[in-house]
Backbone:
């Protein structure tokens, strides 16, 4: 619809524009994920801007209401974008490709986030004191209810001079501190790694069939996307008639 030199001003569609993306249509395929750092560097350089087009106006006019724009657009300057999201004249932006660029960014962030979540420890801390020989320190209910990989590591910082002590009976609910030379006060920190659980909620079957369509239904519809030969068109007027006398030219396929 339109060209790079004669673009349409705007367009609307109830069901959106569809992009042919079947593997059979494509050549010179490269796995972008092998070069994700390059793509992420390109994303970091992007500077989204609010703007209006020079052909739009700020007041409502009866003659050209489609050109009235009270609100901003959000987007980029095509000059600032990587070449692989531009059209073949390097003058327009492909919506499909800019969306694909965003997906690469989301995948990269998700990968890093999962890595961080697996290695960041959970901690519990507090202060305590021993009035006799030992004291039991219990972790909070939230900490105890975490699915920990192992028993937390406990670090004690005494705040009494010349304290002699050791930790015994450490488990996932708390620890016992033993003082060997009388009363003492201390600060403590317990650190552990939490088991990451991914809860996948499976949709009901009637919904799932619309998310992951069965192969037999896909094959039924994919045949309508197969290339077909275009029939020759025939002009509906006599060859001897003056074409300038026809305000409307109709076409029909030759039989």
Residues:
């Amino acid at each position: 619809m339109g060209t790079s030199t004669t673009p349409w001003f705007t367009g609307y569609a109830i069901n959106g524009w569809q992009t042919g993306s079947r593997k059979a249509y494509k050549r010179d395929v490269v796995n972008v994920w092998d070069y994700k750092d390059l793509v992420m560097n390109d994303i970091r350089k992007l500077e989204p801007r609010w703007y209006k087009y020079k052909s739009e106006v700020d007041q409502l006019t009866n003659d050209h209401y489609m050109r009235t724009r009270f609100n901003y657009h959000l987007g980029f300057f095509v000059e600032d974008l990587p070449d692989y999201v531009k059209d073949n004249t390097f003058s327009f932006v492909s919506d499909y490709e800019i969306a694909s660029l965003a997906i690469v960014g989301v995948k990269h962030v998700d990968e890093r986030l999962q890595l961080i979540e697996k290695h960041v420890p959970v901690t519990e801390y507090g202060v305590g004191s021993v009035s006799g020989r030992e004291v039991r320190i219990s972790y909070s209910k939230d900490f105890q209810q975490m699915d920990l990989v192992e028993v937390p590591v406990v670090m004690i910082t005494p705040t009494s001079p010349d304290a002699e002590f050791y930790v015994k009976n450490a488990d996932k609910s708390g620890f016992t501190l033993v003082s060997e030379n009388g009363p003492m006060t201390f600060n403590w920190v317990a650190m552990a790694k939490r088991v990451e659980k991914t809860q996948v909620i499976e949709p009901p079957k009637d919904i799932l069939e619309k998310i992951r369509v069965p192969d037999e239904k896909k094959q039924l519809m994919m045949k309508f996307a197969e290339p077909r030969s275009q029939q020759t068109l025939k002009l509906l007027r006599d060859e001897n008639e003056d074409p300038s006398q026809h305000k409307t030219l109709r076409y029909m396929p030759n039989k």
